[in-house]
Amino acid sequence: MPSLSNNLPSVCAIVLILSLSVEAQLSIDHYYSSCPQALHIVHDVVVEALRNDSRMAASLLRLHFHDCFVNGCDGSVLLDDNTKFAGEKRAYPNDNSLRGFNVIDIIKARLEKACPNIVSCADILAIAARDAVFHTGGPTWEVELGRRDALTASRDAANIHMPSSLSNITVLTANFAAVGLSFEDLIALSGAHTLGYARCKSFRPRIYGDVNINPSFGETLRKKCPRVGNDSVLEKLDFRTQSRFDNLYYKNLLTKQGLLHSDQELYNSNKADPIVRKYSRDVSLFFRSFSRAMIKMGAISPPNAAPSEIRRHCRSPNIQP
Ligand code: HEM
Ligand SMILES: *[C@@H]1O[C@H](CO)[C@@H](O)[C@H](O)[C@H]1NC(C)=O
Ligand SMILES: *[C@@H]1O[C@H](CO)[C@@H](O)[C@H](O)[C@H]1NC(C)=O
Ligand SMILES: *[C@@H]1O[C@H](CO)[C@@H](O)[C@H](O)[C@H]1NC(C)=O
Fold first, then answer.
1. Phi-psi category of 12—alpha, beta or left, where left has phi over 0 and alpha has psi -120 to 50?
2. What are the residue boundaries of the structural domains of the chain, listed by start?
3. How far does the centroid of ligand 3 lie from the alpha carbon of residue 153, in Å?
């Protein structure tokens, strides 16, 4: 019979997992009486932003993902550097890459006018992501609200926790598991790459290194992104419909036309293959899985007892350090 002391490490592990997976107390009617216009205000600015710049849908969706993967969905990704900390914006995956901060500022300013001190920046990101998906032809869902904003951010944490496009499926799965998301969630959420662009720098290792790439697709990309050249040249993540939220991302994987190494890892003779095939055949199944996974991702909570507030400006804590 195993002694208690032998079991201690596993008992501790279980306790740790439980405390990490406690979900924030979110609800769909959080602002129902405190700021009934909140959802409309966010929606209207998102629509205006998409009219100005169709890529903004992709950029807003990605902001919510990057927020949630680093210490939970707490608006930390929006904080500028200050004298007390180096924020996430200049972390490797984010620097010269994340965009949409001005749109969030416009939304926040309108919300502060309508209902001061009520709506968190983290919630703005969740609502904007949902609306961006819907307005590019994707699904919609009831967005859970009531997140609070962090007082601090960490560049190191962003460098550690954001998944890398160089990673294989094992590592990507572990990155998602670390925030309580499943293998299926990984496959479904990666479908976000039906929208937007990546820089040459992000897909160069794939077009000069991978063998599981469609030859003419690779050839075309190598012309646009030479071994030595402009790192910032953009390419569509879904080469067919970069502004349409659909399931062509998965069809591209079937023909080895995923742009990032991490994309093609989802269809590379492993246990993700059948799921990719299902999503490529059945768009409404993909939409349902994506919506469910977005709600799960949006519920990743900050560490227990992390101090929080409703920020008045999304770029800085209310009390300047
Ligand atoms: C599975 C792990 C993931 C990796 C390794 C990854 C990596 C990347 C990379 C390298 C880029 C291009 C950045 C650049 O070159 O500037 C990108 C763009 C993007 N990612 Fe991901 N990503 C992942 C998952 C996700 C998820 C879960 C979402 C949202 C739910 C998402 C949404 C996006 C969007 C929409 C863009 C385009 C943004 C734009 O055009 O502004 N990604 N991602
Ligand atoms: C849309 O573009 C106009 C004109 O440049 C600008 O004034 C406005 O702030 C933009 N709106 C959003 C939401 O980005
Ligand atoms: C995935 O990548 C990790 C880290 O580079 C490596 O240790 C592991 O062996 C790789 N797994 C597979 C199946 O290639
Ligand atoms: C590199 O490409 C980006 C995106 O197309 C462009 O904005 C930038 O001006 C280019 N830089 C140089 C040095 O050509």
1. alpha
2. 38-162+294-309, 169-292
3. 30
